[in-house]
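Worked example 2:
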Amino acid sequence: MRSLSAFSAVALLGTARKVASQAPSGVPSYVTQYAPINYLYTGEVYYPSDLQAQLDNTTPEVNFTAVPNLPSSLTLDNLNQLNNLPPSNGSNVYLTSKENIETNPAWLNGVAPTNNVTEGVKSCAVVVNDHGSGLVDAFYFYFYAFNYGGDYFGFILGDHVGDWEHNMVRFQNGVPQAVWFSQHDNGEAFTYEALNKTNGRPINLVANGTHANYAIGGTHDHTIPDVNLPEGPVEDYTDFGPIWDPILSAYYYTYDVNTQTFAAYDDSIPVNWLYFIGQWGDEQYPNSDPRQKSLLGLTYKYTSGPTGPEDKQLNRTNVCPDDGDACIVRTVLEP
């Protein structure tokens, strides 16, 4: 178990007071009281990023061609229009960097937290799904402008523009039961009681570059899907680096399963971006692109950007996504 320093504990008590004052009216108190608190990797260079900034620095493309007849300004209020602009069908749209990403444009680096907050940006969306009968799932979505895949056997693999990760906390009658940690193509679930916490908030450790979420620090091998080993050829690294309290820079929403609609707790914040079904980054570059590299033609340096929150199974039966794999909710902290 990792104990917090006195400084960290005081800092987090301060952010807890900010949460109470900043969360919009109507947000259940337990959604903020038990929200995960994030520790970024000490050597992280791709920090949480502003959602609108991603739109400002990208152009919607289909098949590597700019989508015509766009709104004069693409915003979080009208992003969903891309679902219906020919030749778009929504899912084939990629928000493509206006600049060559190999020039390392500064916007890809996001915003490092200051006093636990990504000042001046919105880099988190909290989505609350009330199933009824006291069962509530609260999703905490984290956004980053760039994902660094990592160095494997001397090859940089799995980089992509845009990165969505999340935790989900399942509540019963306002009491946290279990927490989901997204990791690459799947993730891990733990009982709330099993987790390290501070002031009751689960500790989430964010891996270097990939931003996969883990309950413990150290090395995490993810060579084999759904198997998290302490070491191996394809590794993530986590430690107790900069604290980021994501709900201090968040939008808050509800999700209605019956109508499949989102609503903001605060009417002044944008909602329509949540309906965008395309990708939040570049399409995987073809082999003919000089920037693209592959390892034996099996995996690539640059892959496609991710889909957004609407594609993350907001109406789950279990705390894990319903993807056909067994949902193992661990009762002991382990890799």
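The CA atoms of residues 221 and 227 lie 8 Å apart. The chain is about 10% helix and 30% strand.
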